[in-house]
Amino acid sequence: MKLSKKHQGEDVAMDMTPMIDVVFQLIIFFVLITDMSQKELEDLVLPLALNAVEDKPNPEDRRAIVNVRQDGTIVVKRETIYDPEKDDYGPLEKFLSQKASVMRQEEIPDGPPGKKFPSDPVLIRADENTPFKMIQKIMELCGKQGIQIWKIELAASMPNPEEG
Asked: Which residues form the domain of 83?
């Protein structure tokens, strides 16, 4: 039995189209995921704290994140929910109430026996030049009847050890 001659000199080309499609889909996927993970964090200049602890949130927490800009505007998930010119805290109160309703409930230490409150914290991120009255107002709304979030975290930046 005679075997046919091997093809010599022919270029074998590989179709790269499927691989390019997969690479582009991966790029799009990672760009979207990266954007979603930072959606709750507003670009702010946080105040410096010498004894700050790195933020490592518990994935089980349903933590609300509230950003307060220097001019007093309150932003949640890139949406303005309080404008100082309109002076209406209704949307902020509604947001905190909704968050409180989905948070885990537990009895608080030294609290009324048998009564449960939201146990996940609210993270308040404020620009270092934000008036304290804005942060105070958020804290007051957290204590309002129907919300009663009693854990509050304040964001700060840590000093850079290289700057001395």
From this structure: 64-154
